[in-house]
Amino acid sequence: TLRKLLEDIPNRVAAEAPSTSFHELVPALLTCLQSPIQTRRKEALACLNVFIFPMPGSLVANMDRYLGGLSALASDESAEIRQLVCQGIVSLLSQRAEYIK
């Protein structure tokens, strides 16, 4: 799956030139957070959470959308999605707290 690929090579993805298709992933994944399909929301959020540690420029540029997505999904009916929201917030706080302030 895409999530497994991103988990295996997150630093490589973040280091790719901004013109590569990897940098188009973040906006596409952010759009999937609004999907009516629970599995799509869950996988998109899991993939985005993988990007927190290498923090590619495409995530930095879309940080407001990511934080908005976390906020919107905080009350999702799925416990798995709410758990991923918590993981995303904790990861941001431990790695990049300046984005939460």
Q: What layout of secondary structure does this protein have?
A:
Elements: H1 2-8, H2 10-15, H3 22-32, H4 38-50, H5 57-61, H6 63-73, H7 79-95
Helix/strand structural class: mainly alpha
Ends apart, CA distance between termini: 33 Å
Radius of gyration from CA coordinates: 13 Å
Poorly predicted sequence stretches spanning 5 or more consecutive residues? none
Strand content: under 5%
Q: Residue-averaged pLDDT, rounded?
A: 87
Order of helices and strands: HHHHHHH
Helical fraction equals 55-70%
Shape: globular
Question: Could you describe the largest sheet, including whether it forms a barrel?
Answer: none
Number of helices: 7
Number of strands: 0
Counting copies of identical and different chains, the oligomeric state is single chain
Description:
α1 (2-8) packs parallel to α4 and α3 crosses α4. The protein starts with a helix and ends in a 6-residue tail after the last helix. With 101 residues, the chain is mainly alpha-helical. The protein has helices at 2-8, 10-15, 22-32, 38-50, 57-61, 63-73, 79-95.
Note the main attributes of this structure.
69% helix, 101 residues
Short description:
The chain has 101 residues and is mostly helical.
